[in-house]
Design a protein that fits this description.
mainly alpha
Length: 98
Amino acid sequence: MSLFTRSSSHGILLADQSGDRILAYISYVSRSYAEVCAGQFEAAAESIAKSQTIVQDLGGKLFAGDIFGSFSAEVALGKGQIEQALSMAEQAVAIAGR
């Protein structure tokens, strides 16, 4: 497990203990990025799903949606889901243009 993955996992633990949902969101997204970089696409998909659940719990929008959306596109690409990856990347670009 990389230092980045361990650090973000520690952030998740602290967020769970404190109830800080924003910290949990950022930590899950950070962990998903570390997992994408390590080629752990299934684990990254799980982390992204957890971060998206938090987003929905907090009202549906949080900052840097374009960047985090691009992580989802990378996961889909890594899993060989080319069309889905392309669609997700286009959505991330659209969000960034707003």
